[in-house]
Design brief:
mainly alpha, Helix Hairpins, two-stranded antiparallel ribbon, 6 helices, 2 strands, elongated
């Protein structure tokens, strides 16, 4: 920016002819002090959001003597300090919440709908021969191959080989009618191999 610009010379903070209002300084509220008050000091626990106006010397003296918990019992002080650690918001132990203490009506789930039977009493996650629960993509891959969740890796390999031989265009006289099914079977087997199932 050029300092001799015609625009720079016309910038004004206040309109021409008006004078800025004089700044009124507050006086120190300490008894017998007439210095300007440049600092705020809280009035106390019972007067939240209210402040005294003090000069530097008196605010330092006030801060040395200030005690937020003055007049409180030890139990009340420890309760206030504990509440302040969580921002004065209620907390619960791990595994509990407000709903668990709301009563018997809140704890029951009679109207709970489970159309897929995922949360039934007898529902157990499918386990592979590897000793771990099958993931959703592994179960879908087994279903694509026409197997259930209890199939072994050897069953999956055998079924894959059988389906590829059956669906391949060379086995069907060059027909590409089963091309999408063949792609799905190959992708399902690749998923099982990538997950370590077979």
């Amino acid at each position: 920016m050029k300092l001799d610009s015609k625009y720079f010379d016309k910038i004004r903070v206040t309109p021409r002819g008006s004078k800025p209002e004089p700044k009124v300084e507050k006086m120190c509220e300490w008894e017998g002090c007439n210095k300007p008050a440049r600092h705020k000091a809280p009035k106390g626990r019972s007067a939240e959001g209210q402040y005294w106006n003090y000069c530097t010397a008196h605010v330092q003296e006030y801060n040395k003597k200030y005690n937020y918990f003055a007049g409180m019992s030890d139990d009340a002080i420890s309760t206030a300090q504990k509440a302040a650690q969580t921002g004065d918001r209620p907390t619960w132990k791990l595994g509990e919440n407000a709903h668990s203490k709301a009563g018997a009506k809140r704890g029951t789930a009679r109207d709970f709908r489970d159309p897929l039977g995922l949360f039934g009493k007898n529902a157990k996650p499918a386990q592979s021969k590897l000793g771990r629960n099958l993931r959703i993509n592994e179960v879908k891959a087994l279903q694509t191959l026409g197997l259930d969740e209890n199939a072994s890796p050897e069953d999956a390999k055998a079924k894959y080989k059988l389906l590829v031989k059956r669906l391949h265009p060379d086995a069907n006289g060059g027909s590409r009618a089963n091309e999408d099914t063949l792609k799905a079977v190959i992708q399902a087997y690749d998923t099982l191999r990538a997950s370590g199932f077979c």
